[in-house]
Amino acid sequence: MTPKINFITVAVEDMQESIEFYQQVFNFKIAEQSEDLCLFDMENGFYFVIQTKADFLQQRDNQNPAERSSGFILSCSLDSTEQVDMLVSRAEKMGAVQVKKLNEEWGYSVVIKDINGHHWEIVHLTQSN
Prior knowledge:
Layout: E1 7-12, H1 15-26, E2 30-33, E3 37-43, E4 46-52, H2 53-57, E5 73-77, H3 81-93, E6 97-104, E7 107-113, E8 119-125
Parallel strand pairs: 1-4, 5-8
Antiparallel strand pairs: 2-3, 3-4, 6-7, 7-8
Helix pairs in contact: 1-3
């Protein structure tokens, strides 16, 4: 048996505001939704999940509600630098903050912090990668 990752779940402060953010910025489509959980279907049995912070913290050993995310970075790969800039612009209009921008030999990358404090790398890789 080969394990595979089917879900990535992140905690959010405001469920409705977060749903609107991920739909408008990333164009994510809702697969299932409840009061404290929303699954976005990414394809091939993989889901990006947002969960209210109160419920999310019940699953962890550290239940400090003041703790902000940053133990990981989510990456979203796009087909061009223009698409990266357009997505970053949409994210900023929805309240995200740009953290870092790189234009390197391997590609173009902008890291943003979303409205819940999660870091996203929006990247376009050159053809050689």
